[in-house]
Design brief:
Elements: E1 2-4, E2 9-11, E3 23-24, H1 27-38, E4 42-46, E5 49-53, H2 56-86, E6 90-92, E7 97-99, H3 103-119, E8 124-127, E9 133-136, H4 138-166, H5 185-194
Antiparallel strand pairs: 1-2, 1-3, 4-5, 6-7, 8-9
Protein name: DUF4376 domain-containing protein
Domain DUF4376: 70-178
Keywords: Coiled coil
């Protein structure tokens, strides 16, 4: 196969008339040249060799697309970290207990709240994240809900901070979004087991 710079096209030996200034290329080179041409490159001959000049705009667009894809990947990872942190237990300082904060825990909280609304004030045995239990009432439930809400708001604000910061870096995959999250029961258990 040959490349004819005057016609900017490939010629096949035995099928096309090959001019004397055409450059011989193998199949792999031809594929690469075609790929580059599709991306806006230009081809010239320099000292009997093909020279491919890439379109800088195209390369920058490709780089920007890659960076944007990486940023989106990290934004999704930040969202996953936020959701994992939200569901991994919250310390209720006023009570001195860790409360579960996953979907099942929220169902239990809403169930107790509905019972209070329907049946009036009452006390129930509540099981904490460490599997101990104690009696709680409407006031205790309000403290629990307040702690859960405060942790969730802090984690969402932290996620926004990290997502804004990752938009400013050129290498998103190296961005460290591990800081600023609320401490979870999972973190607490890991710390205690390492002591």
């Amino acid at each position: 196969m040959y490349f004819d710079i005057d016609r900017n096209s490939f010629l096949i030996e035995g099928v096309d008339e090959i001019p004397s200034n055409a450059i011989k290329v193998d199949d792999a080179q031809a594929e690469e040249i075609m790929r580059q041409l599709e991306q806006g490159a230009t081809i010239s001959i320099n000292n009997g060799q093909l020279k491919i000049t890439t379109n800088t705009y195209q390369l920058n667009a490709s780089k920007n697309e890659r960076i944007e894809e990486e940023r989106e990947q990290i934004r999704q990872a930040i969202n996953a970290k936020r959701d994992q942190t939200d569901a991994s237990g919250v310390f209720v300082a006023q009570i001195g207990k860790w409360v579960d904060s996953d979907d099942k825990a929220y169902q239990n909280i809403l169930g107790f709240k509905a019972s209070l609304d329907l049946l009036g004030d009452m006390e129930i045995e509540w099981t904490w994240a460490d599997n101990t239990s104690s009696t709680i009432n409407r006031q205790t439930l309000a403290v629990i809900v307040g702690a859960l809400l405060q942790a969730k708001q802090a984690n969402h604000a932290n996620a926004i901070k990290h997502k804004e910061a990752v938009m400013l870096v050129d290498n998103p995959l190296e961005y460290d979004y591990s800081t600023g999250w609320t401490k979870t029961y999972v973190d607490y258990v890991a710390e205690v087991s390492n002591e």
